Amino acid sequence: MNLTKEAQQKVVISQLAKAAKVCGISNRNNLPEEAGVMIAKADTSKRFLSAEELKTICNCCNTSEDAIELLIAESKQVIDKARRQLLAQQPQLTLAGGELYPEPRAEACWRDCQQFLRVIIYGVACDCTEITDMAGMSALRQLYKEMEVPIPAMMYVLSRMRTLTTQLLETSGHGHEATCLNKAFDNLCSALLPTEP
């Protein structure tokens, strides 16, 4: 059976979407087993940690429950602010012909940013800076290439998210968690950028 080029691309995109995975925290050997199980469960449901999970993970990983609660509580505002800053700088992105047009395409980008922040927050809760799944991120990079996702715009939003979340943690006295957060952002950003052949 011969598939049209468009049908072939849909198959490729579907396969890549299934293989794409951001969170690799639960695979880390140095993570307490109980924390790894809770992270895997929350990630499968694509949700933040529950209050009970958060308490357990912060206790066994020696991190601040208050810092993580703050990040979770402010996550929507952080993403909204980063999005507004991007669109103020590059309004053409969401106009007809722009890389984030039509609106469902832009919404998918903001959802991905929410998922990235969720995984980074898992990392901070676990005091884990290597948050990504290598194979899953490779599939995600290929998916983004197929779908022509504007990576420079996404990197700009991530840099704004990093600044905003770092300020939140530092101004509330959570320096250790701010350091972990920055290293987790580094890990995510390097995993998102295509490697040179």
From TrEMBL:
InterPro entries: Globin-like_sf, Phycobilisome_asu/bsu, Phycobilisome_asu/bsu_sf. Gene3D superfamilies: Phycocyanins (1.10.490.20). Belongs to the phycobiliprotein family. This is Phycobilisome polypeptide. GO terms for cellular component: phycobilisome. It comes from the Bacteria. The keyword Cell membrane does not apply. GO terms for biological process: photosynthesis. Keywords: Bile pigment, Chromophore.
